[in-house]
């Protein structure tokens, strides 16, 4: 289903040789922006050449990206809603399966991560997620019910967004009000007790050039293949716009999301290939004990009273004015607040009763009761001025602006009452009737805030019809302040956490400079070859606005900012009269000033990680009625400067959680009222640890095995306004590890074979 009017593109000339070469590439997905008329299902036309591809985007949504994607010297993948709706993908994590080089994390050894825990090109990207160009805070799972497209910019992007990681960033573009009336939505049921209803209603108002759009969501769902776990979400998004199709446009957007989930603490890795238990080894030093059988992947080791409550509200005001067809001004203000309260049960080491150690039915695993009580806020104002002009015989397109922001994060420390421990769970038959200790606030907390003022300038210069150069610079001043309260524990056990409260604070402020340069050569109007270099910086506290006085913490204000850089050589082509978009790039990303230990166990910000790789993308309509999106990434991730001390050296190791090969493919064929789609994903094995040459006979789960997953879809247009859609997931019923915790004691299993049946409507 498509709801946005498709745009015709000018006919492009190209050489047959270039087309043949580019079509032969196994390239990686780069979707985009052409769409059908609002309120109608995708139409079937007799003249096949008139069908426009739905997966291709012409350009990114940011006003800072002044050129079409084909002329932008950077790898930017755009996943449009038409693609992830075909896949019945409803979360950000689901949509990111359409681009290679991304893995999902489970968390630290003592904690289980929640939300969109994303690794991209070897670096943590969780704090570099944006909504309409503004940072989105919180460790929550983002739903796509109000998302027009997802944009993945790879490589450091300090000029675009300020402080950030070397991986790049992910931007969700929201649905906006327009003048075309339509009503659309879906009703979906599926395995795992999945139930989901969405509605998307747009109406022009009686006020001239004004419109309102409302998106609604209600989901009540279990998790396929898991007992007890639930994902329940309610969402409402409204967009009110004035002055549409005029020189001055004003849009007010409000987003409210509430999640009430039973979180998943994971499954014990006991019995999986590569599992190791020091407890088992001590009990059976000659390995003569009973075999450790794999546990059932449905096992739930927590309590039915575990919870994950999330509230997120976002109010955005955007005012745009076109002075003429060459100069435009955009100002965006946002206030956002999100809170998360959760308690879940994580599982850890194997425990063997001494008297019955030879009876696996009596084996158990230790459990931790974890909690989070966090509140995030952001208040920001961005102003962007875009101007196109000629100077000295050259054409300039300039994007310039300023940004002011205040971001804060308040974390209350939760823990079990002093002297209280959580009882173990039976390894093979865990019970929710066990007694569960409830984490409470200990009195400790961390309250951090960062204020930022920034200015930036990006200039793209058309030297000739074939050559362009671009350069950008961003200067920003940040100030981070953190107030910390710690608890000095009482000497004797107490029924509640008590002790002496100790206060401290930490401060850091500095000026950061980021830049990028690029050159583009266009052998034809349809293609480009580019070379670019970009940088970014991430100061202490830059990811969570909280500093630490510990020498072993990357957020110590005495440490230097991490510095990322990316050198990239690539090519992009519009083929088959703009029906196919192909990309290829080779790159080297480096992140310096990471925290490492030296030979005498002193911590220094002298570490360095390097990821070299090549990425291919292909998206569009290579054949009439057939659309595809495909991507392939080949990475060589290495810690080029790390710890050298004998007990746990890291220098020369592969970067953890970074697969060397990832592949994604989705295709869909439209035949009159029928649509048939399907795809496959490949994830290479990833290392759990950065330590060089760990002994697999003394360490658990050193590697997550590789896997393939195959999905399929079939749809039937009952009428031009009603469609039935069936999605099948993991057709081959592949058993695989979706994510693993840092200690290797627990994992999330990939979804087992499952299905969703949906009724889509648009009129």
Description:
By secondary structure, the protein is mostly beta strands. It has one domain (16-762): TonB-dependent receptor, beta-barrel domain (Maltoporin, Chain A), CATH 2.40.170.20. The chain is built from five helices and 36 strands. It has a 22-stranded antiparallel beta barrel. A five-stranded mixed sheet has the order 1-7-8-5-6. Strands 2-3-4 form a three-stranded antiparallel sheet, with no helix packed on it. The N and C termini lie close together (11 Å). The relative contact order is 0.16.
List keywords for this structure.
Maltoporin, Chain A; mainly beta; 763 residues; five-stranded mixed sheet; single chain
Question: Which residues form runs of ≥5 with pLDDT under 50?
Answer: 1-49
CATH fold annotation: Maltoporin, Chain A
Task: Figure out the total of helices.
Answer: 5
Residue share in helices? Answer: under 10%
CATH class category: Mainly Beta
- Could you state the CATH homologous superfamily? TonB-dependent receptor, beta-barrel domain
Distance between the termini: 11 Å
* Beta strands, count: 36
Spatial shape = globular
Largest sheet: 22 strands, antiparallel, barrel
Number of domains: 1
Tell me the β content. over 45%
CATH architecture term: Beta Barrel
Overall pLDDT: 89
Question: What Rg, in angstroms, do the CA atoms define?
Answer: 26 Å
